[in-house]
Write a structure and sequence with these properties.
The protein is built from five helices and 14 strands. The chain is an alpha+beta fold. The protein folds into three domains: 67 residues, no CATH class; 108 residues, 2-Layer Sandwich (GMP Synthetase, Chain A, domain 3), CATH 3.30.300; 65 residues, R3H-like domain (Ribosomal Protein S8, Chain: A, domain 1, 2-Layer Sandwich). A seven-stranded mixed sheet has the order 3-6-2-1-9-10-11, sandwiched between helices.
Length: 265
């Protein structure tokens, strides 16, 4: 039952949507992309069918926005300009640092295909788990800048979230292990239930803003609560957009945390 947008931040390039029929799934995909059918390519991933024990399996379509015509190529000059692709932001034990992108890194298209594969494997795993637990729910897949997000909707229970998201964290780790076993590479897939993580991230941002204000006022560093690598990156990004403060990470997983301190420069 997966469905959701895939593409870069800001504008979805591709969505994978389910529906009782192929036509229904295509219509839903076009609505999500906000385009007409002649502006997309449509791939039928799965036709509607009966699954195990007679349970219905919906149609699945992947709809991709057609790429615009490339702009004219500007004449090259002898001077080399620096591009974002020259550097990759990574978080290390001493916080976010800049390292040169190595030549073995996958291309953007290859990375998108990897994320699509991870999302499909994760969705299949979660769907099987829902069936095993006899829980309702729809799956939405979203491909973000460098990770796949599988969001469960209409579960109708906090069972998969747990206290302070502990069960959800365990579920995500289980899904990642399953995906990594299939792909034999580190997985960046994230699992959410009814938007819990999105709400949690907003709370973390609010707390981070309060910590920034405290550091500015007192001149003393403030340590945030432990977070996973994705959440820490969001906090570092928020601090980087704010003048007068800097941030770093300290500690080891799963207790690694962001430290905000005055900018001595």
């Amino acid at each position: 039952m997966p469905n959701g947008p895939a593409g870069t931040a800001g504008e979805a390039r591709q969505v994978q949507v389910t529906g009782a029929t192929i036509s229904e799934a295509v219509a839903a995909a076009l609505a999500q992309l906000g385009v007409s059918q002649d502006a997309v390519d449509i791939e039928v991933v799965a036709e509607p069918r009966r699954g195990f024990f007679g349970s219905p399996k919906p149609a699945v379509v992947r709809v991709t926005r057609k790429a615009p015509l490339p702009p004219p190529v500007a004449p090259q000059t002898s001077s080399r300009t620096e591009t974002q692709e020259d550097h990759v932001m990574t978080e290390t034990d001493s916080g976010p640092q800049v390292s040169l992108a190595n030549s073995e890194a996958p291309s953007a298209e290859e990375r998108m295909n990897q994320l699509d594969e991870e999302a499909e494997l994760a969705a299949d795993f979660v769907e099987g788990l829902l069936d095993l637990l006899d829980l309702p729910g729809d799956l939405e897949i979203e491909i973000q800048e460098d990770q796949a997000l599988v969001n469960l909707e209409d579960v109708g229970s906090g069972l998969l979230i747990g206290r302070r998201g502990a069960t959800l964290d365990a579920l995500q780790e289980l899904v990642r292990c399953a995906v990594q076993r299939q792909t034999e590479r580190r997985s960046q897939v994230r699992v959410d239930v009814e938007g819990y993580r999105g709400r949690h991230v907003e709370k973390l941002r609010d707390h981070c803003r309060e910590a920034i204000a405290e550091v500015r006022e007192s001149g003393n560093p403030v340590r945030l609560d432990p977070m996973d690598a994705y959440e820490r990156k969001l906090m570092h990004d928020l601090v980087a957009k704010t003048g007068g403060v800097t941030s770093s990470s300290e500690g080891t997983e799963p207790k690694r945390r962001v430290v905000i301190q005055p900018d001595e420069g």
